[in-house]
Amino acid sequence: MRLLLVEDDPMIGEAVLDALRAEHYAVDWVREGAMADTALQSEDYDLVLLDLGLPGRSGLDVLRSLRTRRQTMPVLIATARDGVADRVAGLDAGADDYVVKPYDTDELMARIRALLRRSAGRAEPVFSHMGVTLNPATREADVNGEPVSLSAREWAVLEPMLQRPGAVFSRSQLEQKLYGWKDEISSNAIEVYIHGLRKKLGADMIQTVRGLGYLVPRQ
Predict the structure, then answer these.
(1) How, if at all, do strands 213-215 and 207-209 pair?
(2) Do 112 and 31 have their domain in common?
(3) Closest CA to 217 of 141, 142, 162
(4) Spatial contact of 152 and 24, defined as CB atoms under 8 Å apart
(5) Are residues 88 and 170 in the same domain?
(6) pLDDT at position 180, please?
(7) Contact 134, 126 (CB under 8 A)
(8) What pLDDT, on the 0 to 100 scale, is given for residue 25?
(9) Which of 119, 136, 166 is the endpoint of a domain?
(10) Measured between alpha carbons, how far is residue 24 from residues 18, 56, 112, 152, 167 in Å?
C-alpha cells in the first residue's frame, strides 16, 4: 500500500512516517498544499493522511480539488482543529474520516487500516487464496494453516497480488508498493522478494508473465 502523508510539522511528520513504515506502508511525505496537489496528480495512492493547516494552500482546498478531479482514494484528516464546524467542513468536502491532534498512534493506524479495508471492498480484514491467508490487521500469514514469517517488503509485494488473483502486476507497479520517492531501488529488488515468497509459499503461488510482470493465478 502506498500512502501520501501531508503534514507541515516536522516532529509530527517524522513520528507518523516512522509509524507508517513500521506497518509496512510505502509513504511519500510532503509539507505544503501545493506539493500535495502535485503529488496527487502525478502518483497513485491508496490513502491520503491530510493536515488542514498547511502553508500556502490549505488542506481543505487540497481535498476539494482532489474530489473535483474525481479521485476516490480514502482521505483521513488529521488536524488540531477540533471544532464541530471544522469536522463538518472536512467531511462535507469529501474526507472519509477525521482524527484530532494529539491522537494516539495505535488509533490512527487502526483508522487507516479500516479505511483501506473499506476501499478494497473487504468488510473483514482476513482474506485467503490457494491456501495462503493474510491478516492485514495483525500482519500474520499462514500457508495451509501453518504460520509463515514474511518480511515487510515480501508482504507488500504479495498483498496486492493476492487481493487480485489473475491480475498482472509489472515490476514498476510492485516497486510503487514498496518505496517512496526518495528511496533507492536496486535493479533486482522485486525479483529477490518474489524468489523469497516462492520459497515460503510454493513455487506455483506467483507466476511470471514474460515481458509483463507477475501474477497470482486465479486457482
Answers:
(1) antiparallel
(2) yes
(3) 162
(4) yes
(5) no
(6) 60
(7) yes
(8) 87
(9) 119
(10) 10, 31, 13, 5, 22
Q: How far from the centroid of its chain's Cα atoms is residue 77's Cα?
A: 15
Only one residue has cell 464541530, namely 84
Domain count for the chain, please give it: 2
Quick: pLDDT tens for 128-155.
889 999 887 677 899 999 999 998 888 8
The bridge status of strand 97-100 relative to strand 75-79 is: parallel
Mean pLDDT of 23-34: 91
102 — phi, psi (to 5°)?
-75, 135
Task: Please state whether beta strands 75-79 and 2-6 pair in parallel, antiparallel, or not at all (unpaired).
Answer: unpaired
**Vertex 170 angle, CA 166 and 174, to 5°:** 95
Report the SS3 class of residue 213.
strand
Give dist(CA 218, CA 12) in Å, integer.
42
Same domain, residue pair 115 and 131:
no
pLDDT of residue 179: 65
- Residues 198 and 109 placed together within one structural domain of the fold: no
Q: Please provide the average confidence, as pLDDT, over all residues in the chain.
A: 87
Place of cell 511528520: 13
Q: Choose between 23 and 143: higher pLDDT.
A: 143
Domain boundary among 61, 93, 119: 119
CA 84 to chain centroid, in Å, comes to 28
Residue type, 164: R
CA–CA distance, 66 with 75 (Å, rounded to integer): 10
Q: Which of 34, 43, 32 is nearest to 8 (CA)?
A: 32
Q: Is the dihedral of CA 12, 18, 20, 25 positive or negative?
A: positive
Range of the domain at 200: 127-215
